[in-house]
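User: Can you help me understand a structure? I only have the sequence.
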Amino acid sequence: MVSEISSFSPSNKSHFDLVVIGGGSAGLTAADFATKFGFTSVIIERDKIGGDCTWSGCIPSKTLLSIAKKAHAVRTAENYGIRLNGDMEVDMGAVRERIRQTVRTVYEEESPAALKERAGIDTLLGEAQILSPTTLSVGGEVITAARGIVICTGAAPAPPDLEGIDAVEYLTNENVFEMDVLPKKMTIVGGGPIGCEMAQAFSRLGSDVTLVALKLLPTEEPEVSTSLEEVFKKEGISIIKGRAKSVSPKSGSPPSSHALTCVLEDASELSVEGDALLLAVGRRPRVGRMGLDALGIRLNDRGGIATDGNLMTACRGIYAAGDCTGDRQFTHYAGYQGAVAARNALLPLNSPGILSEVPACTFTAPEISSVGISEAQAKNVHGDDQIGVALKNIKDTDRATCEGEEDGFIKIIYLKKNNKILGASIMAGPAGEMISEISVAMAGGIPLDGLAPIMHSYPTYSFDIQFIATKYYYDKLLKLKPILTVLGKILSFFGIR
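Assistant: Let's start by predicting it. Here is the structure, written out as tokens:
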């Protein structure tokens, strides 16, 4: 994406306390943890420091979504009393440059030169071959790791299982942000976070988008998929509920022009034509070419590097963190695991590296965030009659009314016996920010009613979390009313009240 990157910063050293393979979110935090505690560390990276998040994931995608949001605001300005003269034009060349500039800005803080100056972290360009728990080979040179090795090699787009794909030029998250011409008709295969975010982004920029997926965001609550589908339909995104079967090029057209055959839910077939094809069908851990087999390091059923709960592999002294483990692929989770893996390699005792409650966010508009378990999972574990659901539609919140937003909800799953929060799903403009409150409550053992006395600003979206909690706070007080009445009389008798 950015043609020039800072040079790597190898010193003459070949001996380090911690060697990290991969310079993405997990690798950066692992190396940074080491140097903060007085250990030496080096990152071995075969491509660019920063990993997918900086170059082809979080940073470019959220920049594109931000640009698309502004385009949508211009197109819908008349709904708010703002009239514009003339047509809006999207300059994809300028859009691409904006994305590149944002990437450059973020990269400046994590470039090899910055890492060396700021944190004393060395970096080496090359492919790492692990020879033992304490030695590696990089470009024919032997590097030693006195305390441990942390593998943080990330993940890559899953190879497409689509008949005829080799004859068609297609896009993935690794090259879609390099487009300098807006496609008139864009086909996106995959209803996960990447597919949904890009469908909305390109639609708002002006492309005629068709999204092919059996279900939108299938790992989220059912209400999410239904509500997001309605949002997309209102914005003009076509949704084909089915799976992509085969694709063929359109003769006499650019190599990206295609005809995609889809198999629908009723087994019938439908053909979709487009100028650009984006495949967003998942990602697979990068685990090859490091010599894992020779060390007895196994893969798990997700194709990632198998670890114990402390992130150590089957080979003592070698750890794995982030997307390469096949666990949930979030930058924040990878960063957490990188720090934990380094901590467990370098310091006494261990900290858990695999968490059950990891917040997730898909940055569509409205955003969709979740943490913990779903309603169905909770009922499966605890029984239907033990689970309560607190639900409020976003259209019934004052801030959303001010913003003109109608789609979304706040849904909190709890245990009826003690109001313990088990999970939550939020669909709202700032859902990614709102879910943090629920995460903190769950981690701190704060029950749903315990959020009621905590003051929230009004009118904010988060105020309605307090509003929801208030009902359960009042219900709790009502149950205690007989006891409180007696206590009041006793205190009055003694003149205390």
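Now, to help you interpret it: DSSP finds 13 helices and 21 strands in the chain. The two ends are 71 Å apart (CA to CA). Let me know which part you'd like to focus on.
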